[in-house]
Amino acid sequence: MSKTPLSIDGLETVYDALATAIDQAGPDKAELFLVKLALLQANALGDEAQFSQQVHTALQDL
Length: 62
Known about the structure:
The chain is an all-alpha fold. The chain has a domain at about 30-60.
């Protein structure tokens, strides 16, 4: 099943929610929060190969 990508407005909403959540987690727990979120999203995606590709893409140009 193919999903429609988020619009620019949708991406901005997600970015704002993520930034707020990282701030709420605080510097000592931000990494743990991001790992938990990644695992939840991987489970929701349900596709190991696609998740691995997204990890690879996210690592580019850091």
